[in-house]
Structures are given as structure tokens and as C-alpha cells.
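Q: Give me the 3D complex with zinc ion.
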Amino acid sequence: MTSGAAPGPTAVGARRESRQQERIRAKAPESHLRAGLKSATGLVLGAGAGQRAGMVLAVAGLALAVTVPATSAAGQPVGNQLDSAQVSQITAAPERELSFPRPAVTSSLDADGKLHKALTVSAGKVSPDAAKGTLQAPLDTLTSSSPFGTRINPLTGAAGEVHTGQDYAVACGTDVHAAAGGTVTFSAWHEYGGGNRIVVDHGNGLSTTYNHLSVLGAKVGQTLKRGDVLAQSGTTGASTGCHLHFEVMVDGTTVDPLGWL
Ligand SMILES: [Zn+2]
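A: Here is the predicted complex, encoded as C-alpha cells.
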């Protein structure tokens, strides 16, 4: 049930991935999950995607971590094009907004109840306040390595590239949990870079996806409860290192997962 890869310290993994990235860059321009997913789903995300770019996700006891925390004059994130698990340790400037996920002090029933209440209308009509906190973290430990949103390609300088999910650095073979109860609608190899991918439909237009998995632990049609282990993390597909690419989709469009966690 594991990938066989030896999970190592994050810093070691990051250095290894940096070398991998250099090799990949030397070989060919990346055909990347973002481009693939964009073409696959026809998504074009508009303004506002970068609003949360300044956020850093922190879990008690963990160092803050984001990818390449440089900020352009326009305040847009300058991120890494590669869908890697590269992590840079930073400290946040005092004026930066910090977002801390809510500790799991409520039971899963309470959380599902909140989600169901929020989803009495179509997911696309759920207000940000109502959405916040309705999904649970897909990993026991969240170490953000690349946020959702638009970014500037560090190689070409091209703007408007869209990262369709939130990346978390995590050792291969780590349990991945369902963010809420639902039904598995996809559990297979993803043609557009996601590698081994699982999609869970939570109803009313809300779904979550889990990508680059080493082990698919749930089948299409299977009903999952919130928190169920549905897979093991990995680095399959368009990925340069062990990490989880987690997506939240509302009516078929990817949105910032942090708005629902
Ligand atoms: Zn990603």
C-alpha cells in the first residue's frame, strides 16, 4: 500500500525536487497539469483568483510554508510554474494576512451538517462565509507548497497561468482523506497530468479531486464518509515530487480550496 519511496525530511525532498526540476527544464518545456487541466475542463479563471495568494497556511507546530514568496509590484504572486512540492520556509511580513485553518474541534457529523446546510442551494450560490470550514483537510498535516490561483511564469514571464488546486508537500504513501462525505465519480489515471486521480461528488455541484496518488483506494460508485482514507499520496502524472494536488470544484469550475477548508 505504499509507494516504496522513502519519505524524507521536507528540506531534503525540496532539494531533490529542485534538481529534478532543473533536469526537467533542461529536457523540454513542461506539459503541465495546469495546462492539461485547463484544456481538459475549459476553465478560465478570472479576477480574484489571486486574492488569497498572500495567505500562508499554518498548522500548529509547523513552520509556515509557501512556494517562492516573492511578490510583484502589482501584488500578484510570483510562483513556480512547476507543480512541485518545493517548499520555501518564510516568515510573513507583519501586514500580511495569515489564515489559520480551524482546528478540528467539531465532530465530523457537525461538519457534514454544516456542509449539508450550506449545500441546500447550489454550490455556486454558497456564500464565502457559509462555505468556509465545510470541508475537512485531505491530509493530517497540511504543508502548503503552491497555492491556488494565477501566477506569473518564472521562466517566460507570461502572466495568467492558472494553478487549479492547492498543493501540499507530503511524503509519498501518506493517507489521503475524503474532505467530506460523497460518492466517488472518478478513480483512474488522468490523461491530463493528474496521474492517479480520484474525484468525489459531494452533491449540489460541489466536488473535490485528489491527484498524483500512488494508490487509488476507492472505486467509482463507492460512498465515502468524511475523513475516510481514499488513497495514498504519490507523485504520478505531471509531478516532480511527492505531493497532493487538491482541488475543489463548484459546478465544474475549480475554486480556491482554502475558501472551503
Ligand atoms: Zn498542483
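A quick observation: Residues 1-90, 95-106 have pLDDT under 50 and may be disordered.
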